[in-house]
Design goal:
Blueprint: E1 34-35, E2 40-41, H1 60-65, H2 68-71, H3 73-77, E3 78-79, E4 82-83
Antiparallel strand pairs: 1-2, 3-4
Pfam families: ShK (PF01549)
Organism: Haematococcus lacustris (Green alga)
Protein name: ShKT domain-containing protein
Length: 98
């Protein structure tokens, strides 16, 4: 038994043991992404290379000018596990010069 493993199996009491591609986690898997009130994991946004300084909507400059960068910070600027939708307009990043 591997004490560092987060997976576990049932012992064979009688007969043969079959395997499956489904994993049983013995400890919470990515607890920072789990919402206990909805009993669901957060769906991650499509990966965006952090090197790109972009806005996800053409409305971002308008929202930023209206103060949404501070009022709706996680959506606009992002957070520890979330890429912001309006990082360029909120000046979280700067475009690389070409």
């Amino acid at each position: 038994m591997d004490p560092a493993s987060t997976h576990e199996g049932c012992p064979v009491l009688v007969g043969s043991k079959w395997t499956t591609t489904t994993w049983i986690h013995t400890k919470p898997f990515r607890p920072e992404e789990y919402n206990p009130s909805s009993n669901k994991y957060r769906v991650n946004p499509p990966f965006q290379d952090p090197g790109f300084c972009t806005d996800g909507s053409d409305q971002c400059p308008k929202w930023a000018a209206a103060g949404e960068c501070e009022r709706n910070s996680v959506f606009m600027k992002g957070g520890p596990l979330v890429v912001g939708n309006c990082m360029k307009s909120c000046r979280v990043c700067t475009e690389c010069s070409t």
